[in-house]
Design brief:
Layout lengths: L3 H4 L2 H8 L17 H10 L4 H13 L7 H14 L3 H13 L4 H17 L3 H9 L7 H17 L3 H9 L6 H16 L3 H12 L6 H20 L3 H9 L8 H14 L3 H12 L6 H16 L3 H30 L2 H5 L26 H6 L2 H49 L2 H26 L8 H20 L6 H20 L1 H39 L3 H66 L38
Helix pairs in contact: 3-4, 4-5, 5-6, 5-7, 6-7, 7-8, 8-9, 9-10, 9-11, 10-11, 11-12, 11-13, 12-13, 13-14, 13-15, 14-15, 15-16, 15-17, 16-17, 17-18, 17-26, 18-26, 21-26, 22-25, 23-24
Amino acid sequence: MSLNPLRGWLPALLAGLLLLPAPGRAEEPGVVQDLPYGLALYHFFQDRYFSAITDLMAARQRQRLPRQQEEADLLLGSLYLAYGLEKPSGELFERILEQQVAPAVADRVWFNLARLRYEQGQYDQALKALERIGEGLPPEREAERRNLLANIHLRRKAYDKAIAVLADFAGEGAWKAYARFNLGVALVKAGREEEGARQLEAVGRMEATTPELKALRDQANIALGFAWLRAERPKAAAAAFARVRLHGPLSNKALLGMGWARARQERLQESLVPWLELKVRSPLDPAVQESLLAIPYTIERLEKPKLALVHYTEASVRYEQQLAELKRLREAVARGELLQALRPGNLDDESGDSIYRGRLPAALSVPYLYRLLASNDFRSALRNHQDLQYLRYVLGRWEHYLPVFTLMLKERRAAYEKKLPAVTSDLLLEQLEDFRRQRAALAAEVKRVEREHDLRALADEDEAEWLDVLADVRRRLERLGSGADLEEEQAKYRLFNGILIWRIESDFVPRLWRLKRGLQRLDQALAETEKQYAALQRAWKIAPRTFEGFDDRIRGQYRRIKTLQGQVDAALKAQQQAVQTLALAEIDRQQARLKSYLVRARFAQARLYDKLMKMQPPPADLIAPPDEQPGAPRAADRPPAAEAAPAAGEARP
């Protein structure tokens, strides 16, 4: 895995990919249509790449990406690439290209493949992938494509082709500045120094409003300055170095170059000014370390050997101090304290931005450690180590969950076995047949009412009460007989009874319809009840089988986790060794450089001591014995033979 170097460009690269509409649809770009894809994007923009990969892989396996499968595959392939998984990333991109995809999607896939092959150092294959890109890239990606193509030609030392690609570059913004910078480099390497210098100077003089462009401007001036130094044009080199920011990341190189440019012009006094400024800066920078030798070398050229000797002595002391610190750091790193100190502070946070602990052990609290951490190779190795630690943490968390799953399965099985007898013997289930009989009786009654036109059956509660009252009145009138003078009462009875019968008769059809509608709803409820009853009966038979297989799956996952843990532990051990090796190698390089400087300083000290002793007679108590050569220093003052170094003039880089 090689995560760190790609993290910088991955969000920018995906910014164009994530806004792709699927082919054949006219939806606005950027709309999330499949929930799993949206969840993966949520994790991605929080730098939780592992969770995003997990979401996408699960969604692909369950086929839950019906509308945004292509966008999800592009994101997954890019995440593989961010983790340094070049093979599965390339296979996924190539599988996308085998499908019938829109030209815009294909162009982005070819662009991703080109970036992948370029990062792998496969420049010929990267070039072939770029040649497959059509007209579907947006302007910003097109500008990046041309710069990538130029970089490939530069890597292959095809400088004329790189010049041809960049000569008519029409992009804007930062890519235009990068194109001019690369064009200048290509022209210089092609032997067209004057043309290349003009391009680099244009970048070195541009108006920069962002930190990125300011850094590029400084880099152009540094490259131009040292190019002029090699061409023996120190005045032009000094002008280029003067345009570098005094407190930028490249200021130390600029100060060192400025000193040498003035020294080449024999302006020795002025050359000391930038070097004396360097001298008070951090002694960890190679430019500062070199200036400690350049200062006394120049002072000696100014015919001030005593002052030069003082500065050589000071340089020797500072080199010895730095070597002692490096020795202490090397011993601490060899004991494993570096990896222990840089272990993640919170393994549950996979984002990696706040993953370091706040304090370091005393053995590691030297400034050299921070310079070491700034190394790209070391940061990549360290990031890989932290990724493996996170994977081991995830596997341990999953292993911890497995007993919980076993307990859940056991409890659910027990709960089912406990509830099943109570459910199967529920008396409510026996009432279903009664409900069926009652429904049949109601349906027969509705048919009778409709057939016999039974008005009383459709009367409401008040109407039924009045019908009973009128029936009682009718019986009483019948008992009184026809002899009595009851015509008025009989007329009132007929009037009231007629009104009531007319009311019911006029509303008979709507009342009958409502009764039938209620019967239909009853049929629906009964059908749903029967359906649920049938499902419950099936559950009684199927439910025991639903618990089958889970025990084997849990045991299988446990074995798989154990296997993966072994693989991760082996990879983690190897990565720890790689981090240790890189750290020690970087420390050894710094030690070798400092030792070389120390030898030169000591040799210069010895030479100046010898020179000063020849310039003035020694005191009487320091007269050399007869067996020693006149004017030669005593044996105790001579540098060891092993410390023989080049002449003083060779201290100059």
